[in-house]
Amino acid sequence: MGRAMLLQRWICPTLLSAGHRSAVLKKETPFTHKRLFTSPSNRHGMAEEAKKLAGYAAVDNHVQNNQVVGVGSGSTIVYAVDRLAERVRQEKLNIVCVPTSFQARQLILQHGLTLSDLDRHPELDVAIDGADEVDAALTLIKGGGGCLTQEKIVAGCAKHFIVIADFRKDSSVLGQQWKKGVPIEVIPMAYVPVSRTIAKRFGGEAVLRMAVSKAGPVVTDNSNFILDWKFEHALNWKEVNIAIKMIPGVVETGLFVGMAERVYFGMEDGNVGVRDPPVN
């Protein structure tokens, strides 16, 4: 049975390690879902509150004084940075932040937090980031915002990689909730051969992501293009991730396999769900 539970809010601002989990997660109930019938506007409001709950829980349970923290990208991380800045002010914490994108960098500066980079801090204590989808094994799809490469680099440099998401991102298998496919960052000149190779080897369709407020394709912070691979069915994601990365022209994939230590889900009922990797 997977080590999943439901937090009645969050318990204390202590770094969660294997030895601390039983002490910190004092009030546990089985991990369940409540599906309520709500209007789209109400559901959006519930999702925003859920993002806030997840972000606050992660910061309270995993950030301590004198740490270097990786700051992720996307809409959910905004709430985590809000809480981080609040704790820094109230508790006089000494925290150094390493961003995963231009957006994350701006959030850090806007909140008056200490900005650094991997040149000065190549090893992070913890990285906190969102996800587009999370499956039962804590395999993630990331990159909906186009920041997958720097997000994966920062997560890989962290001792602990913690993920925050709202209830809409929770799936048994990848593709159940997220229908936009797996983002794949590619060198611009290679996007056509890479897309053809992926479709031929793994099925589905890899489509160049087009920009909304500019003519032409989305361009990443690294000056590359993004393909969104709409796969047909669940696969061995570890093997697929490695195989795609070996295709000439591929920079990185949005598949995060075996990286997340814990995921916090803000739930519709105001609780915070917690999922750890399954015990093999």
Structural class: alpha/beta
Low-confidence stretches: 1-5, 8-37
Terminal CA distance: 9 Å
- Computed over alpha carbons, the radius of gyration is 18 Å
- Shape field: globular
Strand content: 15-25%
Order of helices and strands: EHEHEHEHEEEEHEEHEEHEEEE
Strand order of the largest sheet: 2-1-16-15-9-6-3-4-5
Largest sheet: 9 strands, mixed
Number of DSSP helical runs: 7
The count of DSSP E runs of length 2 or more, i.e. the number of strands, is: 16
Q: Give the fraction of residues assigned to helices.
A: 25-40%
Return the average pLDDT rounded to an integer. 88
Structural notes for this entry:
This protein has 280 residues and is α/β, with parallel strands linked by helices. It is 29% helix and 24% strand. The protein is built from seven helices and 16 strands. It has a nine-stranded mixed sheet, with helices on both faces. Strands 11-12-10-13 form a four-stranded antiparallel sheet. Helix 2 (40-62) packs across helix 3. The chain is globular and about 55 Å long. The protein starts with a strand and ends in a 5-residue tail after the last strand. Residues 1-5 and 8-37 have low confidence and may be disordered.
Which secondary structure elements does this structure contain, and how are they paired or packed?
Blueprint (H helix, E strand, L loop, with lengths): L3 E4 L13 H4 L3 E2 L10 H23 L4 E5 L5 H15 L3 E5 L2 H9 L3 E2 L8 E6 L3 E2 L5 E2 L6 H9 L1 E9 L15 E5 L4 H12 L2 E4 L16 E6 L6 H9 L4 E4 L1 E2 L5 E5 L5 E4 L5
Parallel strand pairs: 3-4, 3-6, 4-5, 6-9, 9-15
Antiparallel strand pairs: 1-2, 1-16, 7-8, 8-14, 10-12, 10-13, 11-12, 15-16
